[in-house]
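Hey, can you fold this one?
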Amino acid sequence: MPDNTRRARDEAFWMTFADRYDAQPGPVNLENGYFGRMSRTVIEEYHRNIELINTSNSVYVRQRFEQQDSLDIRTQLAELLSVQAQCVAFTRNATEGLQSLIRNYNRLQPGDQVLICDLEYDTVKGAMRWLARQRGAEVIEIDHTHPASFDSLLATYRAAFIAHPKLKLMALTHVTHRTGLVMPVAAIAALAKEYGVDIILDGAHALGQVEFNLEALGIAFAGYNLHKWIGAPLTLGFVYIAPQRLADIDPDMGETHFPSNDIRARTSYSTPNIPALMTLPLVLEEHRSLGGAPAKGARLNYLRNLWVSAVRHLPGIEVMTPDDPRLYCGITSLRFTRHDDQQAMAERLLNEYNLFTVVRHGAASGPSIRITPGLTTTAAEMELLVRALNQLR
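Sure. Predicted structure:
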């Protein structure tokens, strides 16, 4: 058994890991996909950084942070991704980066087409519709068949590319926030390249729990969060642009604080959360020391499989995400098939079993309840979820 798989089942180890985190008493949190907790040591470092910036003010920021420290932090982030520092620029979150990539994409002409699907984040879909209006392009919207498979996902995109030869740009989400479906990004990217379609990748939920090589994915444009599975403070994300494609994204609204050949010109220039950025080296060190995405992903997948394997075939429960290991991660959703109101069922999970979940809407397959264990979630809590689902179904 591989080390990460064996460790994923080691409750004693993960209890020790959980001791590094503080949590208020209350419901069992199965909505860890919103954002992750910072460790106690990261919080302490964050507080020290806040005090330093508050007392030194612009003296440190102008003389040291802007000139050197921020560049070092950026380099460390690039090393995590095995890319060059010139390919990444900090943003406040993935959404901000994705909006910048979309609104500044300059290769659309009137009459071209852009593609979105039912599983994309609503803000991304809105930005793509806005871009189409501004450039005189047409929006093509598709729905994915349910249940999804590796082949069905590729077939849906191939059919769209064939049916709409004027497609030039598409949105793609690595881990869909509605159901947790993991898209086969590399295969879709290769197919899109064959038809001359660029991809803007939403990696918000992927970084830190899904192992991938960014350059090997074949993606030129992407936005990511650092506050979900990496463990950074809120307000930290980044944008990635492959160096050979930088000219295809205009400087953001004529940004001139950086040269036009600098990726940082593709983000809005403003005062960032400097204390949070200063915390990032410790965050990355803790992420690596745990084993990175392979170790975190193995644990989250193990917790996911504990409850999915127990309820997958039960009448009254539909698990919305397939069991193909290429297509799932820790996030997985379900639906009570004998109850129309999924929000009411989520409230019953909370009120009757002390389990906090969230309902996601927008997928063509219908609303579902998203279950997202975290790195401090225990196997016993997954057993409680199984008992609750058995009794509520």
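The domain at 3-30+292-392 is CATH 3.90.1150.10 (Aspartate Aminotransferase, domain 1). Let me know if you want another pass with a different chain boundary.
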